[in-house]
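2024-03-11 09:14:02 INFO worker-7 job=invfold-0412 stage=load source=structure_tokens
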């Protein structure tokens, strides 16, 4: 048997896929032939040898070619990726994709089309690079009621934060290094602003909770506001900064699941399982009943690991071809039309907070700040004066777990105090 595959995109991951298939690590893969590779430019130098007759700029031709058995979409971006995926499905071809942006926004449309056409759409490479987290949530962990999924699921930002914490690099230096390693997306704002992580947690939440997640409603904050001062103070208290993607059941839910889904930087105690994930590594921490806690970790970005996840999906397709069994819909198990999750507004979420205030170094300032917090029901764990800069004292506050809206209202009042110059930092502390 020859299994003819059409590849859309020959960038970092596409190149990695070709490399693996040139030296197939599993006998089933010996049947695979890369029949066509869709690219933007035929003249660009390539890192892997591809017969020139396989290269084409006619991507529509690949997805509608009756000679092609399966399509691997590795172009990224929303369009034309979404339309090409749908067209491939329409032509009865299974699709493997690493495109978290498309799946997070158009997953429902794509999987309904796939169910109708009775073809598989596989997406292991869309989240967590080489970590088999999609398969795990889709199958192995399904016997448990999942309570929470927390992830470090953006390698670029984890690399940047690790460089800043361990090497004392500036944000700009660390970002340049991440780009030089090929981790960052072409436009690094998707990584740095947390949008990439939000796409990925939308997908993980769909799997874990069996719902459709409105991607645009996920609150999302990036890492640009983390300063070396905050990193230093956090370390003194035994915390480290991580960009966390969170999806968890909210308390007091009624009929349909209410989920607390968000992406933001947070201080984690250095003893937390996610605190010791460094560099480009990713990790996903799953808590469920009766499962307990599971952490999956490994390389979360880059050519080899992501290509490995793509080729793993190809092996699943080939194995199912042999048995003739239909693959389940990866996002909602077998539900044809999943409920849409209602998301807890961020203002209602409960967290501990780290706050850094710049204020005049005078008697009564700490008391005034404490009183504002108290007025809004915000209980404090500690309030400490740190360094003084040009007559302004740095005051760092750690709160107990409070409603976010209450903390923000207290801060709005603190900002109005005549002795307060600025509130440069506000971060959540998770544990
Ligand atoms: N740019 C992504 C990251 C890799 O840094 O994790 C692809 O998802």
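2024-03-11 09:14:09 INFO worker-7 stage=emit residues=431
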């Amino acid at each position: 048997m020859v299994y003819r595959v059409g590849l859309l995109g020959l960038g970092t991951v596409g190149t990695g896929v070709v490399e693996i298939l040139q030296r197939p690590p599993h006998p089933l893969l010996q049947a695979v032939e890369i029949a066509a590779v869709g690219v933007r430019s035929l003249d660009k130098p390539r890192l892997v040898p591809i017969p020139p007759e396989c290269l084409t700029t006619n991507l529509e031709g690949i997805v509608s070619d009756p000679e092609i058995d399966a399509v691997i979409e590795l172009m990224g971006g929303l369009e034309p990726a979404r339309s090409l995926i749908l067209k491939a499905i329409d032509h009865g071809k299974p699709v493997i994709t690493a495109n978290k942006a498309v799946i997070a926004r158009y997953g429902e449309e794509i999987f309904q089309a796939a169910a109708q056409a009775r073809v598989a759409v596989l997406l292991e490479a869309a989240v967590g690079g080489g970590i088999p987290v999609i398969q795990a949530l889709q199958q192995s962990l399904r016997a448990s009621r999942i309570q929470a999924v927390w992830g470090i699921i953006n390698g670029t930002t984890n690399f940047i934060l690790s460089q800043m914490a361990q090497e004392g690099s500036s944000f700009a230096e660390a970002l340049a290094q991440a780009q030089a390693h090929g981790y960052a997306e072409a436009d690094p704002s998707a990584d740095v602003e947390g949008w990439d992580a939000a796409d990925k947690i939308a997908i993980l939440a769909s799997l874990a909770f069996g719902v459709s997640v409105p991607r645009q409603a996920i609150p999302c904050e990036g890492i640009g506001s983390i300063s070396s001062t905050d990193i230093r103070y956090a370390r003194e208290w035994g915390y480290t900064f991580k960009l966390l993607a969170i999806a968890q059941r909210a308390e007091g839910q009624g009929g349909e699941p209410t989920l607390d889904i968000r992406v933001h930087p947070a201080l984690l105690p250095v003893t937390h399982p996610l605190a010791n994930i460094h560099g480009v590594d990713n990790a996903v921490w799953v808590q469920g009943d009766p499962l307990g806690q599971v952490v999956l970790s490994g390389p979360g970005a880059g050519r080899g690991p992501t290509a490995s996840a793509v080729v793993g999906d190809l092996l699943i397709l080939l194995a199912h071809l042999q048995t003739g069994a239909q693959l389940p819909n990866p996002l909602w198990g077998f539900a044809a039309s999943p409920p849409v999750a209602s998301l807890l507004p961020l203002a209602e979420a409960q967290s501990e907070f780290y706050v850094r205030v710049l204020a005049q170094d005078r008697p009564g300032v700490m008391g005034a700040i404490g009183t504002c917090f108290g007025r809004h029901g915000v209980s404090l764990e500690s309030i400490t004066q740190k360094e003084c800069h040009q007559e302004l004292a740095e005051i760092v506050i750690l709160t107990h777990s409070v409603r976010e809206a209450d903390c923000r209202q207290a801060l709005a009042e603190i900002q109005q105090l005549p002795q307060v110059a600025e509130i440069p930092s506000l971060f959540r502390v998770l544990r």
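2024-03-11 09:14:09 INFO worker-7 stage=report msg="The chain is about 35% helix and 25% strand."
2024-03-11 09:14:10 INFO worker-7 job finished
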